[in-house]
Each structure stands twice: as C-alpha cells, then as structure tokens.
Specification:
This protein is of the alpha+beta class and about 220 residues long. It folds into two domains: about 90 residues, Phosphorylase Kinase, domain 1 (2-Layer Sandwich), CATH 3.30.200; about 110 residues, Orthogonal Bundle (Transferase(Phosphotransferase), domain 1), CATH 1.10.510. It is about 30% helix and about 25% strand. Strands 1-2-3-4-6-5 form a six-stranded antiparallel β-sheet. A three-stranded antiparallel β-sheet has the order 7-9-10. The longest helix is centred in the middle third of the chain and has 20 residues. The chain is globular and about 50 Å long. The chain starts with 7 loop residues before the first strand and ends in an 8-residue tail after the last helix.
C-alpha cells in the first residue's frame, strides 16, 4: 500500500511528504517530523513481502535490523533514528542527507586519485562499523553513497538488501545484482557471503571513481 502525501504515522509524529522510491523489497518516503520540523526518510517493506506467507517473519527481521542499525553510529553511515510498527507494517526512520550521490558526481567529472582514496577510506570506515555489528551491506556502489551538501564527507546509505550474518539472510537473484559491483559469490545460490563481499564492492566503487565506469560484471 502506497502512502499518500499528508499521511500521518506513529501517533502524529511523522507526516509523509512524498515517495522517494519503490523497489522489490521496500518503499521509501520523504517525511517531516511534526514535533521538530526535521526532514527524515522513512522506509517500509513492500506489499509483496508484507503479504508473503513468511510476512510476519520478514516484519520481525526488518524491525530487528532497524534496532541493530540504530546502534551503528558513524559520521559516514546514515543514521537510523528509530523503528516502529503501524497498521501491521514495520517502518524505519532515517536521517535525510542533503547532497548528491557519487554516481551523479562521476557523471560530471572523474574524481582525482587522492580524493578518490580519501572517499574510499571514509566508506571503508563506515563498513567497519557495520561489520563489527555482524552486518553486511551488500549493495555498496556510487548510487548508494551521498556526498553531504557543502562538505567533502560521504555517507553510505540504502540498506535495501543488508544482511544479518547471524541470520544467514541471502540475496542471490541475479536480476537484483548491481552489475560490476556485486561480488561473484552474490550470484551463487549458496555463495558464502562475508565482509570480503562488501570489500569487493568498495574496490569496484574505487575503480569507478577513477575511470567513470564500473568494472566488468563478475562471471
């Protein structure tokens, strides 16, 4: 169910402004915190997951993931503010990051080597926080990294297919892989995902910063 502008959530705390994106697994909205006036991003599960025969399990995992992510505090990692349920649907509330994605930045100009190295170090630091919590990102690419407005600071966003190592969650649909950025093991139904999977994607992102194009897709 798509939420319309003006929809109120969480006992009036959040007001939906507009839909930012809709994917296979989730829907993302821009919203306003009615108490503080702060702009936030709210993510929820898609209808096909909520109505799936394992829907209750997906909802519990989504909320549990939100709680884990809220404990991952880092200047280069988007902040998860809170999670809640409304009308049987789970929601994650995240900070809104003004700026442009690295993908758009690369379209305009290639990034000098020294700056590219600095950028990759920033995202590497963010990934290390996730990994310490037993999480994988699994979708590191320029489209999911935002250069915060009027700064040289990057923020890693979009946990659409983040996987909890302890739960063994797997995302192996080839049609959902990011060609050039997804590691070979992500294309294999029983591929062993690890922290190295994120490092592969980070390295591919570095390559793209320097050349303007992603590497060849994994075989």
């Amino acid at each position: 169910m798509d939420l319309k502008a003006g929809t109120v959530l969480h006992n009036g705390k959040y007001v939906i402004h507009s839909q930012l994106g809709k994917g296979v697994f989730s829907i993302t909205y821009l919203a306003i915190n009615a108490e503080s006036g702060q702009t936030v991003v709210i993510k929820t599960l898609s209808d096909n997951l909520c109505h799936h025969h394992h829907g209750d399990q997906f909802k519990r995992q989504f909320i549990a993931l939100g709680r884990l992510l809220s404990g991952c505090q880092h200047q280069h990692l988007v902040r998860v503010i809170e999670s809640f349920e409304a009308a049987g649907r789970p929601y994650l509330v995240m900070e809104y990051i003004p700026g442009q994605t690295l993908a758009k930045l690369i379209q305009a100009n290639l990034v000098p080597e020294a700056q590219a190295i600095a950028y990759i170090r920033q995202i590497g630091d963010a990934l290390s926080i996730l990994h310490q919590k037993g999480l994988l990102h699994l979708d590191v690419r320029p489209e999911n990294i935002i250069l915060r407005q009027d700064t040289d600071k990057l923020v890693l966003c979009e946990f659409g297919i983040t996987s909890q190592l302890t739960l063994g969650v797997r995302q192996t649909h080839a049609s959902l892989m990011a060609a050039g950025y997804s590691a070979p093991e992500q294309y294999v139904s029983k591929g062993q995902l690890s922290q190295a999977t994120d490092v592969y994607s980070l390295t591919a992102t570095f390559y793209c910063l320097l050349t303007g194009t992603p590497p060849l897709p994994a075989p």
